[in-house]
Amino acid sequence: MKGYSDVLIGLQYGDEGKGRIIDSIAHKYDIIARFNGGPNAGHTIEAEGKKIVLHSIPSGVFHRNTTLYIGSGCVVNVEKLLEELHLIKNAGINLEGRLHISDRTTLILPHHIALDKILGKKLGTTSNGIGPAYADRAIRSHENILTNIHLGNIIATPEKTKKDIIQNYRERFEKFFGTEQDIQHTAERITTNAQQLKQYLSPDRLFLTQVAQLGKKILFEGAQSAGLDVNHGTVPYVTSSHTCASAAYTDLPVNYHRKTIGVAKAIMSRVGNGPFISELGRESSETYCMENEGKKHTREVEQHYDLEKLLTSPNHFDIGIALRILGNEYGATTKRPRRIGMLDLVQLKEMCQLNKVDELYLTKIDRLADFSRTTLQGIPFVTAYSLDGEPLHYTPTVLADHLRVQPHTTYHPNILPITSTHYQDLPPTTQQLIKTIEEHTGCHIRGMGIGPQREQLITTY
Ligand code: IMP
User: Fold this and answer.
1) Which residue, 94, 209, 107, 220, is CA-closest to 153?
2) In terms of pTM, does the model score above 0.90?
3) Average pLDDT for residues 77-91, to the nearest whole number?
4) Ligand 1 atom closest to 128 (CA)
């Protein structure tokens, strides 16, 4: 029997709750595989009474019969990965024999992080060195100094790779390392620590192909989402990898593809800079969130705000803050306040079409009931765009145009708080809301998240 693969991606700007959807469907698969990004991802999973925030490890950890794979499209920070493995072990989960990492993953080295902290500041990156590491992969070598250093290299030929790292520091990035002693020490530490990953290394590029031939089912787990794709996102406010569904097929032939699963959040969010057409309180919200970027305690500060006053304010910016507080929309790792926006059905339809999404999961649908506490006419959805007074049916590529797009809002009647996990038990207004989203996107909604727990998921068939 031939195996197959499905691809799950986020369709907005990240943080849609991909991890919790993967956790709820992982039992249907033999392998969960990452294909892009690195520790910039933060996938939160709550199961077995525990909460884990994953960065590089695929979200199937709680399903002990699944194999986990980190593919060659990813970038890896050795020390962060070891920390993550340690946390997972402390949660009682043993990944020995379960985790496989492609030997072609590119290493994120300390100079990539130092560079990202400088170059990525204006973009609002996660400062994980992602962009500089992918850039070094693309540069390949710089005046005979190897810049694309693979995990396979550091494990198979540690002494030679240590020399490569030292050369990069001496000749390209000396300013980040005070002394020769610092350089030697850093290279030695990384090379030694990397050896702890030896047991997970997968040197066979046919690893996934062979298991698929044996009839296994693979789920590819996208990170960072379609709105942040290096090509299709709001360039330059994007990540550095390809996040769309087709990018999953780097380590497996495309012939194995069965279906694409998209995840979107009912009230949208975005962290970092960049255009966000449906943002509540547009420029004011972006400026406010960026000013609070480095402050780890925004959540605590906002908890003391007068929620009723914000909810009933005529100002969309205030309503956005209230929805952030109610939805607990703060970065899983960085604690950054997430910018909040209405569900943009124009963008969602475009992303569903671009990725040919077969099944859609809508997370945090319960939060839409919060709009009944506002003075708005109902639940707002962006259903059309215009630019310079003319209708526009797509999101523009040119940043200046993107920033000038006018969203047009349609209001759906308010819904009651959702108390049942059975679709049939939902009141007609809530069922109608689901149908409206399906009509606009042309995509079947397969499930809806109504809370972080595994069982807080409504499936439609
Ligand atoms: P980078 O991926 O760290 O280079 O960051 C580039 C942009 O992608 C920034 O706006 C980040 O906030 C955003 N980003 C990266 N990873 C995630 C994620 O997992 N969730 C949400 N946004 C992300």
Assistant:
1) 107
2) yes
3) 95
4) 3
